[in-house]
Amino acid sequence: MAVAAHLCRVFAFFEIPSPEYHGRWSSVSPLFRKSRLSVRCSSGESPSSSTSSTAESDFDAKAFRHNLTRSKNYNRRGFGHKEETLQLMNREYTSDIIKTLKENGNEYTWGNVTVKLAEAYGFCWGVERAVQIAYEARKQFPTERIWITNDIIHNPTVNKRLAEMEVQNIPIKDGKKQFGVVEQGDVVILPAFGAAVEEMLTLSEKNVQIVDTTCPWVSKVWNIVDKQKKGEYTSIIHGKYAHEETIATASFAGTYVIVKDIKEKFKHAVSKGFDPDKDLVKVGIANQTTMLKGETEEIGKLVERTMMRKYGIENINNHFMSFNTICDATQERQDAVYKLVNEELDLMLVVGGWNSSNTSHLQEIAEDHGIPSYWIDSDERIGPGNRIFYKLKHGELVEKENWLPEGPIAIGVTSGASTPDKVVEDVLIKVFDIKREELLQREAVAA
Ligand code: SF4
């Protein structure tokens, strides 16, 4: 049976038939007849890696990584240049405007613009660490070619800066990474989201210097899916199936299903040879570290209830395991926006990379509270004049004229975990300029 048809059967038990559903309802097993979720049965292709497959069930990905981390060509702690690289990052990424806000209880008024900054926002510990280790790698290997398997983080400003430092992304051709460009003597950085185990295997065979900046919160999820694999549980991974982190997590899982979200576009992928009849007897939940916590919990509860119905409450521990692997930084930023949207605000500015998962959820929270919210990745999305080009929570790109209301305004501001303060400052300066121009014009008319 085609993978797509499998998928429709897998998710039919969550499903209310919708225009997005393309499966065969007649093939749904009784376990899956109670349906609640919206499903899109798309191609069903597994997240792919461009390297040789290690999907065979007897490959122990965790043991392989464990050995790799002990090899002489591997580094995940930096090279002793921490202080100077942090100083450099401070010069490049910090902001006086954010400093003023922090010194004034996260609220300050410039002209007729009051800015209210979320209590938790911007660079997280894992991102700062990853960027700093990448800077260290450049310092340690000044003449060697340095590659990176994906963008270090989801922020165009930081990625551009690394490109200026001649840290090159592995080229992609026909959707596949060209690891052939990497030669002995080169250095390869694994980004904060980690890398698929197949890629690590390829690099290990090439005997290159690996600099691993994977956030420990991400590798914690790998340990969880490994545990599920060893217990013969199918991993239901709440994540975005094309996101680098989820691709990496899936590579450490045994049998898996990737679920994007509970309400809308619920995209997914499954492991090779997935069979819903035998692979949904024992299931475990795991999630991409940057998902919306409430949604992960809802998915977990739904799956748990279904397994209870099928196997009995008394047997649930033999059929279901769940871990919340949303990281603290993601959680704190979400909590801060939930708090901020309850204040008197004219609008929200959400600053972060357009491919940043954690930023998308900050935008989602603001939108769901009915506040005009503008998600932009840099100040270049503002202008000319009072115009903005921004993104909505589901990815629609929108252009809007006169987005800043006339007169005094209060703006809520937050930024994703991979956004430097300097990027937020540049955005706010554009806002101040527009409002200053408005005042000048009003004075000119009155004169
Ligand atoms: S958002 Fe969380 S998982 Fe991602 S880098 Fe930051 S701390 Fe790590």
UniProtKB/TrEMBL annotation:
InterPro entries from the UniProt entry: LytB/IspH
Protein name in UniProt: 4-hydroxy-3-methylbut-2-enyl diphosphate reductase
E.C. designation(s): 1.17.7.4
UniProt GO MF annotations: 4 iron, 4 sulfur cluster binding; 4-hydroxy-3-methylbut-2-enyl diphosphate reductase activity; metal ion binding
CDD domains to which the protein is assigned, alphabetical: lytB_ispH
Pathway where it operates: Isoprenoid biosynthesis; isopentenyl diphosphate biosynthesis via DXP pathway; isopentenyl diphosphate from 1-deoxy-D-xylulose 5-phosphate: step 6/6; Isoprenoid biosynthesis; dimethylallyl diphosphate biosynthesis; dimethylallyl diphosphate from (2E)-4-hydroxy-3-methylbutenyl diphosphate: step 1/1
GO biological process: dimethylallyl diphosphate biosynthetic process; isopentenyl diphosphate biosynthetic process, methylerythritol 4-phosphate pathway
